[in-house]
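thought: fold this chain, then report.
action: predict
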Amino acid sequence: MDVKRAWMTAVLKAHGHKPTFTDIANLSQQSRVVLDAVDLHFHDLGREPGSRWLERGVDLHTVRDWLGHTSIEQTSTYLAGTVYSGDIGNSLFRAASKTFIPRPRKALRA
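observation:
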């Protein structure tokens, strides 16, 4: 059994549907309709935790590394942001700003 078939089988069974297949890999029309209605995809397994990590304040470079992406652009495109994530980001920024103590500037020499 390949990964795709195992994924479809697991999703359908988790939603109370016994999958039927027309051959080794193709779902029957009835099972395909149920799977489409569930609207859960294999990539959601990475997208969901990646989005939650960002919401919790993990920086984008670290999330990129954890997801195995090669660029920040790939990670930014891949992750689904939420309105809630902006609120958390603002809260984390305000909290960090309160604990930041700027260093005094050195006097410029003439």
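thought: worth noting. Residues 83-99 form the longest helix (17 residues).
final: tokens above.
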